[in-house]
Amino acid sequence: xxxxxxxxxxxxxxxxxxxxxxxxxxxxxxxxxxxxxxxxxxxxxxxxxxxxxxxxxxxxxxxxxxxxxxxxxxxxxxxxxxxxxxxxxxxxxxxxxxxxxxxxxxxxxxxxxxxxxxxxxxxxxxxxxxxxxxxxxxxxxxxxxxxxxxxxxxxxxxxxxxxxxxxxxxxxxxxxxxxxxxxxxxxxxxxxxxxxxxxxxxxxxxxxxxxxxxxxxxxxxxxxxxxxxxxxxxxxxxxxxxxxxxxxxxxxxxxxxxxxxxxxxxxxxxxxxxxxxxxxxxxxxxxxxxxxxxxxxxxxxxxxxxxxxxxxxxxxxxxxxxxxxxxxxxxxxxxxxxxxxxxxxxxxxxxxxxxxxxxxxxxxxxxxxxxxxxxxxxxxxxxxxxxxxxxxxxxxxxxxxxxxxxxxxxxxxxxxxxxxxxxxxxxxxxxxxxxxxxxxxxxxxxxxxxxxxxxxxxxxxxxxxxxxxxxxxxxxxxxxxxxxxxxxxxxxxxxxxxxxxxxxxxxxxxxxxxxxxxxxxxxxxxxxxxxxxxxxxxxxxxxxxxxxxxxxxxxxxxxxxxxxx
Length: 565
Known about the structure:
By secondary structure, this protein is an alpha/beta fold. The radius of gyration is 24 Å and the shape is globular. The mean pLDDT is 96.
């Protein structure tokens, strides 16, 4: 079917949503192409895309289609799976509540029970609800940290983990078998409507209790630290404030960013990876002299940190805040005699080497996964069953971590509570969290982690991103920025080449990622984003000093830009 045929099929379909029809009628030819050149697909964090009309957009019809496929998949497991049902959560974005209700309606049309949160809730609480209610799966309507024009759809299995590729492919096969997404228009009987349940404070209370249980030093002096907190208009507002209040921490919320505003009116960006997310929080912190700033993304799975250090606020990267958490958690488990046997920490192939070095110092093994916390959740479940290793921490460079695995996704409320505790613990010793990080650099080496992105939208952009990776495979660089490449890992072809010898790269699902290891201990990784029209470049640069690491990073970024030009 051509793009024009797909467009006309939608435009003339009797079930087409009226607002979407108006949007279609006003589309330019380029807009038609971008909206219909492909079907929106699952990535590293589910299905995510621009809101709007078309097969390549998030709308009631593409969400219904996804749920129809998910429902058929659940049915294949029998009546008990349908009775156990699905927990459904949603964030503050445009259409999130409506798309959650649409999801429940499609499931009910297949006689599948659903439990829908009464209002917006964090992604980690949805993961928790799946486990707490013993559901067969979960759905979260969110676009996480993406701009306001986006929304998305995440699927969870019965462990509360996002669907790993093997399971996602089964659902996708069901979705792809649906020929006419516009024909899906549930008309529910009274009995089917009764399958849709509302959940609220009961699950909240159970979740809060578990989060509060992670404290390692509940007696820490909370009067030492003043916190400024922002939920960036999203779902962290009530949970984090409630947890801080119950735990006795002193915090000031950025009130202008506490309203669940889908337009993110009071923040330049809802992404803690970007400086704009901290603007109002920094002003509030400077006004009251706060010790730390904590910022959560809209669905509260990621947390950004700012630290008052020598009179200025230093924003920590996800790698840096993760390293500080690792040091605090593992040191306390060791000192208190609570370190389990065969402890293991998880991070990803694009996460800094520093965390692994910290873990090794405490006798903790590190296992790496592909990008996407579902891979960490999968490993947690595996070791929970075979008891070969015991989980102590998991994190990604993208500002997400999990302290205790009663949730199987990144959990910003847990991270906020643990960072607040760590800040109080170290301030009692006369240290800031930046001091802790610098101590780690002095002991284990200076690492400068950074990330750059090349944004390429639409069909041409997707083709250009594929071309970049294909060209690098065909013309592998022997050096980058004047430093020899020691080894190359190709996760799509499952190979590692070192000193001209090719070996099999095992333990990973195949993925379009290239990672270059340099002779002096640094590395660079390249991968297309699974959720945005971007090609991402990750740098972990090691230096003899902080200044040298920064200088080398700038040189490497320039060299990579020239390499792909």
